[in-house]
């Protein structure tokens, strides 16, 4: 069944009018007609089975019928990714959504090539991946921030798993504990971290330097690998329940 994220409140009897893009997708691309059923979620009210009640030139509207899944949030895990090349960054955002990252924070470091990106496009990719992967929320893609500033304002109580390609850090699997602590994973740019950055990161009490093995991984491989290890060792890949 088609599954869409909407901003609107979801409750029995409410009327959810779709924006032009989603209406076009539903009516023209997917050729749905009045009476068709669609799953909607908004990140707050769980997932609802809804029926298409209006379909025409003026757009589309749906009526929530029943809640199919209660709202649930996945683990509090952020991905901090240095601004790598666009297509690779788009892959990383999509995989981060599938692998349950709650937020994707874009990071400017000394060796990043760009200092800006198309955040709206990345957010659309995150939303589409969340719809496909069965999440009940959409990861927020945050605007690029300098690493210094991120560290200066680091959130109390959140661990920073620093993927350090220098090779002398402990294996990530040994460093990650299922302790329920909010966490963030940091992946550097194609050029890696420069020595001053590495020292600055290692000096932070909340930083946990980890190795992702003896080979140098590209940023997308590293992001996918680190998110996978974290979810398997400390995240929701053990939960008996279904999707969350
Ligand atoms: N140009 C660098 C590699 C950068 S790879 C070099 O050749 O040394 C991009 C990012 O992926 C790195 O900054 C790091 O965060 C992560 N990464 C890649 N391989 C890794 C490994 N074996 N262990 C830990 N992190 C790794």
Description:
A six-stranded parallel sheet has the order 8-7-6-10-9-11. Helix 2 (86-98) packs parallel to helix 3 (119-133) and helix 2 (86-98) runs parallel beside helix 7. Helices cover 30% and strands 26% of the residues. Strand 7, helix 3 (119-133) and strand 8 (140-146) form a beta-alpha-beta unit. The chain has 244 residues and is α/β, with parallel strands linked by helices. The site of S-adenosyl-L-homocysteine (SAH) has 17 residues, from helix 7.
Report how far the terminal alpha carbons are from each other: 17 Å
Mean pLDDT: 96
Tally of DSSP β-strands:
11
Query: Cα-atom Rg, whole angstroms?
Result: 20 Å
Shape: elongated
Q: What portion of the residues fall into strands of 2 or more residues?
A: 25-35%
What is this structure, in a nutshell?
Helices cover 30% and strands 26% of the residues. It has helices spanning 20-29, 86-98, 119-133, 147-152, 172-175, 195-202, 219-234, and strands at residues 3-5, 16-17, 37-41, 47-56, 59-69, 77-82, 103-108, 140-146, 159-163, 183-187, 207-210. Strands 8-7-6-10-9-11 form a six-stranded parallel beta sheet.
Provide key terms for this protein.
244 residues; alpha/beta; six-stranded parallel β-sheet; five-stranded mixed β-sheet; 7 helices; 26% strand; binds S-adenosyl-L-homocysteine
């Amino acid at each position: 069944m088609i599954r869409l994220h909407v901003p609107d409140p979801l409750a029995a009897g409410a009327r959810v009018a779709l924006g032009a893009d989603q209406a076009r997708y539903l009516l023209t691309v997917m050729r749905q007609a009045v009476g068709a059923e669609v799953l909607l979620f908004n990140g707050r009210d769980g997932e609802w089975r809804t029926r298409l009640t209006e379909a025409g030139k003026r757009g589309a509207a749906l009526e929530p019928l029943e809640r199919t899944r209660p709202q649930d949030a996945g683990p509090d895990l952020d991905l901090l990714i240095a601004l790598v090349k666009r297509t690779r960054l788009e892959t990383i955002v999509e995989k981060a959504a599938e692998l349950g990252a709650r937020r994707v924070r874009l990071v400017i470091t000394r060796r990043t090539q760009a200092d800006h990106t198309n955040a709206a496009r990345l957010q659309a990719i995150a939303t589409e991946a969340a719809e496909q992967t069965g999440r009940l929320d959409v990861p927020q893609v945050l605007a690029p921030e300098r690493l210094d500033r991120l560290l200066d304002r680091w959130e109390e109580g959140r661990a920073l798993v620093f993927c350090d390609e220098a090779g002398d850090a402990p294996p990530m699997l040994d460093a990650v504990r299922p302790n329920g602590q909010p966490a963030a994973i940091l992946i550097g740019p194609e050029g890696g971290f420069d020595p001053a950055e590495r020292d600055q990161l290692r000096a932070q009490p909340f930083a946990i330097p980890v190795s992702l093995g003896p080979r140098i991984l590209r940023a997308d491989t590293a992001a996918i690998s680190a998110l996978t290890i974290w979810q398997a060792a400390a995240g929701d890949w053990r939960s008996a329940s279904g999707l969350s």
